[in-house]
Structures are given as C-alpha cells and as structure tokens.
Design brief:
This protein folds into three domains: about 150 residues, Rossmann fold; about 190 residues, Rossmann fold (3-Layer(aba) Sandwich), CATH 3.40.50.720; about 90 residues, no CATH class. It contains 24 helices and 17 strands. Strands 10-9-8-11-12-13-16 form a seven-stranded mixed β-sheet, with helices on both faces. A five-stranded parallel β-sheet has the order 3-5-4-6-7. A three-stranded mixed β-sheet has the order 1-2-17, with no helix packed on it. The relative contact order is 0.11.
C-alpha cells in the first residue's frame, strides 16, 4: 500500500465513522484491539476480531446466497464500496468464477440498469453544462493522489449493448478493477471517469429515473472541445498517468486514438490479443505472419483495430514490407460487402485507410457475399467481428478448408449469442483441423477416436491489456508504442499451451485463470521495449532482466491488511 508508512504501519488521519466509511482503509471486523482503541472504533464494531481469511469465508457465503448473477454483481459492488482489501481478496481467490460477474456478461446487465440500481457514485462524472468547472472537479477527484491509471468512457458503445449514457462509469470502473486483479495496480492510484455527454438511447431519455445528462449526444466541435479539455487536464495534473479510453463509439474511437495516442482497449487491446492468438496459430502451421491471407468479416472498431494491429506487426517484423504492402494481405468486409472503391465514399467510413480498400482492377462490383470472397481469396485466416450469429456457415468453413490444411478461424463476436459460429461445428466442418479462438468462453470440443479434447482459446483482452498498461505505467513511458504492444503480444503467444507443448489441440492462448502471471510477463516485455525505444521515463527502472523482474514484483499492490497508526498528518 502506498502512503506514509513506518515499516509495517501506515499512518492515517481518519477516525471513527469516517474511517469505517472509507473503503480504502476500512478493515471492518479485522481492526485489532489496539487499532480500535486508537482510532475511535471501540464499541462501533462487534467484539470479535476476524482475520482476512475469516472475512473471506463469510463474504463468499453471502455471495453464494445471491440467487441471480445481477444480485451477485450488486453484492460485489456493495462490498467494493465498503472494503477494497476484502473485495479484491475475494475476487482474486475466486477469479474464474467471479470474472463474468464483475465484467462481461453480467456487468453489461448492471450497466443497462445503472439508473435503476444506483445507490452510490464512484469516480468522476463530467457533463457539458459543467465544463467550466471541469478542472476544479478533476482536481477534487485526484486530491492527494499521484495516479497511475485513468479509465475513461463516453458510454456510447458498451459491451455490445450500445449507448448507455452515464452508465459508462460502470465500464470504466470494471476495467480499473481488472487492472488491479490482473496487474496489481493500486486501486488508490486509479480513477474511473465517464464523459456524460448525453445519450441517443431513447429508452434512457424517456426513463424518469435516468440519472445522467438527459440530452441527445454531444457531437462535433463541442464534443471535441470537451474531450480535449479533459485530456489536457490529465496531461497537466497527472502527466505520468496511463490514460485508457474505453467503449467509445465507432465514429470517435479511432479518431481520438490517432489524436491523443492514448491507449484504447477496444482497438489496441483487441488487436493485441488477436495477434497473440494468431502468432501461436501460425507457429503450429510453420508459416509466417507475412504469408497469411486474412479476411475480416465486420469492420467496426474491433475489426479495424485487429486489421491495423496485424498489419503493423507484419510491417515491423518483416524486412522490406511497408504498411501499404502489408495492408494488401487483408480483405475487409462490412454490411455492404467487401470494402472496395466501387462502394463510393458514402458507404466507406472515413476511418478506413485507403490501403485497406480493394481496387477495381482486382475486383468486380458484385463481391458482397462472404462465400464468394472466400472462394476467390482462399484465405488462411478468417476473423469475425460482425456480431452476426451463424455468419460462418458449413459451406464457408468447408470452402476455406479446401485450400489450407489448417484453417485459422476466429469467430470473435460476443456475447455468445452473437458469435459467428460454434467452435464445435467449425471443428466438425473442417475435419477437426481448424485452429480456433473465440470472443466468449466455449467448452472443449471432443476429438474423434479418443478421449482427447480440442481446447478453444478465448480472445479475452484481460489476458493482455493489464500487462500492456502495467509495463507502460512502471516504465513511465511517454507513450505506448506499436513496438511495445507487439512485444507484449509476442510474449503472450509464447505462453500459450499450444506453443509450450507444441500441440495443435491445446489452446492458442493461456487460460484466464493465469491472467495475473501472464500479464506480469507481458509487462516485463513491454518495459524492456520501452527502454530500447528510449520512451521510458522511470529513472529507477533496472536494465538487467532479473533485477527488473524483482523490482516490478515489489511494485505490485496486494489485497492484504496493513497495521494503522493515527497521525493527524497521515493519509486520508
């Protein structure tokens, strides 16, 4: 725990109810007799003094007693507002079980009901009518803290459920929680922010209980001015902080990324984890990344982010191949079909680079069907980010399998009901040769002729973005460069079971249960790359790998209780 400490004691200036209502320092029934005497807690707590393990046992039983996932989510949110240490210790102990509760899919339900479930605010809310007070409000939210992380969302494209207005604070908060769980970022050094710029969700606008800014979404110059002012405040007052953009709409996400060079998980995180899975897959096929023919079905923020990330990796890792040539390995599709010049500017979004647009010399005017594109391109890789359930049909998979021994097929759309194909069917249609990664968890698939099963990889961003962020935070990098992201992806692919065991039936990515250790390894690679690119600003960062590992381990926040000592000048 950071702060004013003497060996094993942390000096705090809180007492009595003020201390019990502070989730950062509250220990509940774990306050010792000495602490209760000194901190004005005697008589305010039951007599027994519990250990953290005893509190965990009680909290888990309470969690289990909640009958629905949304009630479990609400219980955990309440626990977080009371006691950070207990909250994070409980999640860490039951990570695989509780992750779908605090993130997708349950968090999406909680966000959609944010105004109905609202009890207590957290983080920072910024709305257009209060733009003149933004600096004052920002400083108030950051008072006394040197932040490592700010996660910000404008709530327009939340977890596949779209525009949720002020409920966007929920996704910012959830992402910050995962940084703590998977990368050891101190929650006291993280801030969740929502840019509550209105909503185009008519259900919210008509809801009498809606707690957000009840106007249509801010667009154009006024929107840009608000975002620009916010980013300027971060740079001015928290210049060493990682700024993470989350769930911005397709019209803003790439544009803001290009403008501010902050980290956008929907674009860069999704691209990075997909790159890692693909690197693991091509390791099994004994081919090179530059040799792939890649069809991406669905060209929104996620699809374009994946295309750009893979293209940049091809360019950086292949001698003599620039980004323009690397782009020629891609065929992008959206609701109008193959993205090509004949569609005209009115059907091609501004954020799609010219290099990704197929020319008429290569294509006619009728290639709007995925099957026809598969027949002509003969791709080695098919990636789905369309949210169109069943788009990868039996005919498409069989056609692809005619031209490549081990087709690489990633139906990444989530939630599960929007996945382009069931991995079980993809395996059957490809004669059990396809190498698969999905955007949602799926059970292993039986392999004919034995007891062995094919393990389906889940392209879960949480396997990499906390590590990318941690490496950037610890190195105090001036920016998260393309090379840093690609370096992290490469390390993740090396940790995949299929790579370490050289077995094509093993997963293309590590299990999510290993997320903390995996993200730490990713962070080390990111830190080393930051040093080699001379963007690291951390003077104390060791150059020796063993020393760097030891140093980084010492920086991790852990959910454990410290002993408190009262001091009027202590932490609050």
């Amino acid at each position: 725990m950071s702060g004013k400490a003497t060996k094993n004691r942390v000096k705090i200036s809180l007492k009595g109810p003020e201390l019990l209502n502070n989730p950062r320092f509250n220990k509940g029934t774990a306050f010792t007799r000495k602490e209760r005497d000194q901190l004005g807690l005697r008589g305010r707590l039951p007599f027994a003094v519990d250990t953290l393990d005893e509190q965990l046992e009680r909290a888990y039983k309470q969690y289990q007693s909640r009958e629905t996932n949304i009630l479990k989510n609400s219980f955990l949110a309440s626990l977080k507002s009371q006691n950070w240490t207990l909250y994070y210790a409980l999640l860490s102990k039951h990570l695989i079980e509780m992750f779908p509760i605090v993130y997708t899919p349950t968090e999406a339900d909680a966000i959609s009901e944010y105004s109905q479930l609202f009890r207590r605010s957290e983080g920072l809310y910024i709305s257009p009518p209060e733009i003149d007070h933004m600096e004052e409000d920002f400083l108030d939210a950051c008072e006394g803290r040197d932040l490592d992380l700010i996660v910000v969302s404008d709530g327009e494209a939340i977890l596949g459920i779209g525009d949720q207005g002020s409920g966007g604070i929920g996704i910012s908060s959830a992402k910050a929680v995962i940084y703590t769980l998977a990368a050891g970022v101190d929650p006291a050094k993280a801030l969740a922010v929502t840019l509550d710029v209105g909503t185009n969700n008519e259900d919210l606008l008509k809801d009498d209980l809606y707690v957000g800014y009840r106007k249509k979404r801010l667009r154009g110059e006024k929107y840009d001015q608000l975002v620009d002012k916010f980013v300027g405040l971060v740079k001015k007052h928290q210049p060493k902080c990682l700024l993470h953009f989350e769930d911005f709409g397709v019209t803003n996400a790439q544009r803001l990324l290009a403008r501010y060079r902050s980290f956008n998980d929907d674009i860069q995180g999704t691209g990075a984890v997909t790159l890692a899975a693909l690197q693991a897959a091509i390791g099994l096929t004994n081919t090179k990344l530059s040799e792939q023919r890649i069809v991406i079905y669905g060209s929104g923020s996620a699809g374009l982010g994946i295309a750009r990330q893979l293209r940049d990796a091809i360019s950086l890792e292949s001698k003599g191949i620039d980004k323009k040539e690397a782009s020629s390995r891609f065929w992008l599709m959206d609701k109008f079909g193959l993205i090509k010049k004949s569609l005209g500017k009115d059907k091609i979004r501004d954020e799609i680079e010219d290099d990704f647009i197929r020319s008429e010399e290569d294509w006619g005017s009728d290639e709007n069907d995925l099957l026809e594109v598969i027949k002509r391109v003969k791709p080695t890789v098919l990636i789905g980010t369309s949210t169109q359930a069943g788009a990868f049909t039996e005919e498409i998979v069989k056609e692809m399998s005619k031209h490549v021994d081990r087709p690489i097929i990633f139906p990444l759309s989530n939630p599960t009901k929007k996945c382009e194909a069931d991995p079980k069917e993809i395996r059957e249609w490809s004669n059990h040769k396809a190498l698969i990664a999905t955007g949602s968890p799926f059970p292993p698939v039986d392999i004919p002729g034995g007891d062995k099963k094919y393990v389906v990889a889940e392209c879960n961003n949480a396997l990499i973005y906390p590590g990318l962020g941690l490496g950037t935070i610890l190195s105090r990098a001036s920016s998260m460069t393309d090379s840093m992201i690609i370096s992290g992806s490469r390390r993740l692919s090396e940790l995949a079971p299929c790579t370490s065991k050289n077995d094509p039936d093993e997963s293309l990515l590590p299990d999510f249960g290993d997320a903390p250790s995996v993200n730490f390894e990713v962070a080390l690679n990111v830190m080393k790359t930051a040093q080699s690119e001379k963007v690291s600003r951390e003077e104390g960062l060791p150059t020796d790998e063993k020393e760097m590992r030891k140093w980084a381990e010492g920086k991790a926040w852990e959910p454990k209780y410290e002993e408190y000592e009262y001091d009027q000048q202590g932490l609050r």
